[in-house]
Please model this.
Amino acid sequence: MLILSVLTISGCSSSDDKFSKDRSSPDFIDQLVPIALEYNKSKGPDNSNIPIKGKLYFWDMTNNGPFTPNNFDKIENTVTYNINESDQITVFMIVNVKKKSLGNYQSYIKGVPETSKTVTGYRYYTDIIVMYWPEKTVVGWHRVTGADPTGENYIQGDAGIVYGYDLIYEWISSLPRT
Model:
């Protein structure tokens, strides 16, 4: 069974207090976080072709919770609730998210140009560690590089982060299944 877990850690270190026991997480995530943190210190080469086994689970370490952006529910065998921890799961953990400023853009409410304001556009770089449960093994990591801002943005929250999530979804959807 494959669990996909996405953990996001910006500048993470093993002394980070983001992972205190007051957060609500499945027990298997509590067991995998220290392994991911240790691996993140000296990870090997980027591997974009990691096989998925079993169910998928996503965990976001930055926000200390499940990672469920748009479209991820369309990936076959994604689990968010009622997890049986004896199942085979592939866990995708975002361990680093960095952003690079690409300049300023005009942003406005669609159809209402008088709401125009200048906003900074970013490209996101997201490092994702992939692990198998119940083996508790790291099988690799991959950096997803977000696209450039479109140049025409609409005021609807932090539009910049969408560029990274869409490409994460595309990458995970393309992975082979065993």
